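To assess whether the prediction recovers the assembly geometry, we first specified each molecular entity separately, as shown.
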Amino acid sequence: MEVVLEMTLPRNAESAPLVRHTLDASLRGLGVTPEVRADIALALGEACANVIQHATAGKDYEVRARMDGARCVVEVIDGGAVVSTTGRREGVRANWDAPPAPPSAEHGRGLQLMRALTEEVHILDRVQRNGAIVHFEKSLAG
Amino acid sequence: MDFTVRRYGDRTIVAVSGDVDVGSSPRLRVFLLGLVEDGARDLVIDLGKATFLDSTGLGVFIGVSRRLGALNGELVFAGGSPRVREVFEVTHLAKVFALYGTVEEAVARRPGGVRTAGPSPL
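The predicted structure of the complete assembly is given in tokenized form:
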């Protein structure tokens, strides 16, 4: 059985728990173990946090998740923004491509967590739409 | 996310329950810095009932720890599910912060001298 979830969410902080819990409920329904579900929830939360924290207020973002018995593929799509100053997008990339955060830094650990807990973590720029797609996958085999 | 605050002498224990994430972290920051503003210098964060912790929550803890460090105070942690503790491990913050198994251990530690190993507080 394959399950596909597509959510369009407002870029506010309350959307993050909503999308995490929605995906988690689907994974639970597929019988995925709590450990694997927790990895996916954290990676998804980090991807959403990145979008939300660099948000232009009032714009939406999308989350697409595809699950079958073997694999969960998630994309968080931050591409619907109206054009803003270019500096904002450059700031997002700089943040996510930076080396691991020094111990005293308050930011910069989201990608580190995603890469540690999931697979195939990619960030695809959407230059035409002034946004990015954060992609990750996770084996559901446990 | 909810907080429960208790005091043992000079030590302030803040039990955090629920999800600590991009949605709740700003409230956590305001709350903890408010305690520091009111004079708390020795904070124990009890993560025993924290159901989720992400990098935004870690960022709050680091910011509060730096603030306390400037005031000769300290922030330590107690409890936490294997998942919550893994977040500290993956980000290498388990080497920076003192994580105690229980609140009792965190409270009973020697005043001012916390760890037997590891780098200085932030």
